[in-house]
Amino acid sequence: MLRGLYNWTMAKAAHPHAQGWLAFFAFVESSFFPIPPHPLLGLMCLAEPKKAIRFAAICTLASVLGGLFGYLIGYFLYEAVGEWLIGALGLTESFPKAACYIREQGAAAVFLAAGTPIPFKLMTITAGFIEMNLVTFILAAIAGRALIFMVVGVLFQFFGAPIKAIIDKYLGTVTTIFVALVVGGFIAITQLGGGHSEEEPADRCSQVTSLDDL
After folding, report:
1. Closest to 107 measured CA to CA, from 134, 79, 82
2. What is the C-alpha separation between 186 and 184, in angstroms, rounded?
3. What is the pLDDT of residues 152-161, one digit of tens each?
4. CB of 22 closer than 8 Å to CB of 44
5. How many Cα atoms occupy the beta-carbon half-sphere of 31 within 13 Å?
6. How far apart are CA 146 and CA 57, in angstroms?
């Protein structure tokens, strides 16, 4: 299923409306879609390197708007839609931890999620659910998403062919590494905080198992 979804996504790179598809995938990935837009962005940058900045800007803007959509789901529709969506994505256990991290780290947690393999959709829905300051959320999302998409654009502009070959041949391995990076990303979040008392665990949020623990 993963291979088929990946191939379907990649086919959009050659579509006459590829920029529209890029914006679409960047938008939905920030709120509910499992496949990130990075490979599609990379192929488009590889095909037309002179437009890499434009493609990265499109991806960034659409992703932030998608993140805002995820925020609104968490803020207004968590019980009706958000809770089911989090479960369907297999992120139920991560949700209370994400809520804890965002409450304690604020913009730093959103920025890290926006610029790393941490599921951004988890953080956008969670940010809305806990009613994080909207301006802070948007600014952190813009910074993180712009950083990661510009890096992808530059990497594929200079090393596009080898990277694409690796993804095509080792999709399963790449996916496993991606999951490992997600876990590592959550660990990294815990290192951003400081000043914990001796009685309080250094990584309190990792111990959270439900919203009642917040």
Report:
1. 134
2. 5
3. 777 777 776 6
4. yes
5. 23
6. 7
Return the number of other C-beta atoms located less than 10 Å from residue 3's C-beta: 11
Q: DSSP label at 90?
A: T
Distance CA 99, CA 152 (A): 28
Least Cα distance to 102 among 124, 74, 121 occurs for 124
Distance CA 128, CA 31 (A): 11
Q: Provide φ and ψ at 34, rounded to 5°.
A: -80, -20
Torsion, Cα 69 39 141 114, to 10 degrees, reads 110
Task: Tell me the domain boundaries of the chain.
Answer: 2-192+199-213
Hey, how many other C-beta atoms are within 10 angstroms of the C-beta on 42?
24
Output the six-digit token pair for 117: 């393999």
Q: State the DSSP code for 81.
A: I
Contacts for 180 with CB less than 8 Å, ≥ 6 apart: none
- Of the CA atoms within 13 Å of residue 173, those in its CB half-sphere come to 6
195 CB-near residues (< 8 Å, 6+ apart) = none
pLDDT tens per residue across span 23-57? 999 999 999 887 888 878 877 887 777 788 889 99
Its pTM stands at 0.74
Instruction: Measure CA of the first residue to CA of the last residue in the chain; give whole Å.
Output: 36
